[in-house]
Design brief:
This protein has 151 residues and is of the alpha+beta class. Helices cover 52% and strands 22% of the residues. It has a five-stranded mixed beta barrel with strand order 1-2-3-5-4. The radius of gyration is 22 Å and the shape is elongated.
Length: 151
């Protein structure tokens, strides 16, 4: 069994799978390069130097393609769509040391509080903006007590 080829294929597959979570083209490009280099090693036993050189070359090529594709797909309409998230409410599903997981649009998103404060599981927060795949949140504004409720 060829351990280098297997290792490259496993790392490449893990990076491609992680791309689903991150939603970037760059991780997929790097993972694809490692998958192909690992496959070449398993098929033709090129040797470690040739495999790593092939992985590096393919990574650079795929990263350039991914960057150009990302720029081509980005336009004013997509930027407005990305910013349409502001103002929506989300529910905190998990609190880690420096990050939150919140439920929004039927899935979980990475999030942080804009003021660096603390949040609790089940708390409702408001989206201020989105930076990549991370939501920047703020507490909901306090609801004013109406005059009818005071009497």
């Amino acid at each position: 069994m060829n351990s280098l080829g297997t290792l490259l294929v496993l790392i490449g597959a893990a990076l491609c799978a992680a791309e689903i979570v991150s939603g970037t083209f760059y991780l997929f490009a790097f993972g694809s390069a490692l998958l192909l280099a690992g496959g070449a090693e398993l098929a033709w036993r090129l040797g470690a130097t040739a495999d790593l050189g092939l992985a590096t070359l393919l990574s650079l090529l795929f990263l350039v393609v991914a960057h150009r594709l990302r720029r081509r797909l980005s336009n004013a309409a997509s930027e407005r769509t990305a910013q349409d998230d502001s103002g929506h409410e989300v529910e905190v599903t998990r609190v880690d040391t420096h990050a939150l997981r919140v439920r929004y649009r039927g899935t979980e998103w990475a999030a942080v509080l804009a003021d660096g404060g603390e949040a609790h599981v089940g708390e409702q927060l408001r989206i201020l903006r989105r930076e990549g795949n991370r939501l920047i949140l703020a507490p909901l504004p306090a609801t004013p007590v109406s005059n009818r409720e005071q009497h």
